[in-house]
Amino acid sequence: MADHSFSDGVPSDSVEAAKNASNTEKLTDQVMQNPRVLAALQERLDNVPHTPSSYIETLPKAVKRRINALKQLQVRCAHIEAKFYEEVHDLERKYAALYQPLFDKRREFITGDVEPTDAESEWHSENE
Questions:
Q1: pLDDT in tens, 63-90
Q2: Range of the domain at 104
Q3: 4 Cβ contact partners less than 8 Å away, ≥ 6 residues apart
Q4: What pTM value is reported for the model?
Q5: H/E element holding 96?
Q6: β-pairing, 6-7 with 10-11?
Q7: CB 64, CB 75: distance < 8 Å
Q8: Residue 54 lies in a domain
Q9: How far, in Å, CA of 79 to CA of 73, rounded?
Q10: How far apart, in whole angstroms, are the C-alpha atoms of residue 86 and residue 106?
Q11: What whole-number distance in Å separates Cα of residue 106 and Cα of residue 103?
Q12: What does the CA dihedral 31, 37, 43, 46 come to, rounded to 10 degrees?
């Protein structure tokens, strides 16, 4: 049966777990500062294949087939996405041309190069 006594309102199990975690962190810090440990880790890392393809080569044939099929689907998605952005760009260009005369007129009003006509300056609003 576990001891569920409390010390300062904290169960002793929690205090013990916190001490163990702190001790583990200290030990990890000490180990990671040991040059021999670091050299051994580096040697192990140097011997690990670094390329994703070398990892894929170790997989079963059925998994490799799935990966290749997924790659093909991803390429098809990328082509569709490219077409989408081409069409979005064309649409943006179309509407930019429609906006441009309004932007030009607005710039003329703001800079004072042109004064708005009575019809252009009329505003019907119940709130103003």
A1: 999 999 999 999 999 999 999 999 999 9
A2: 59-115
A3: 11, 12, 13
A4: 0.46
A5: helix 61-111
A6: antiparallel
A7: no
A8: no
A9: 10
A10: 30
A11: 5
A12: 20
Report yes or no on 3 lying in a domain: no
- Quick: pLDDT tens for 5-47: 555 555 667 778 878 888 888 888 887 788 888 888 888 877 7
Q: State whether 75 and 99 are in the same domain.
A: yes
The one-letter code for the residue type at 47 is N
Number of domains making up the chain: 2
Look up residue 25 and give its two tokens.
């962190």
Distance CA(102)–CA(47), nearest Å, equals: 65
Query: What is the number of residues in the chain?
Result: 128
Mean pLDDT, all residues of the chain: 85
Q: Is residue 126 part of a domain?
A: no
pLDDT (tens digit per residue) in 97-119: 999 999 999 999 999 999 999 99
Q: Is residue 127 one of the residues assigned to a domain?
A: no
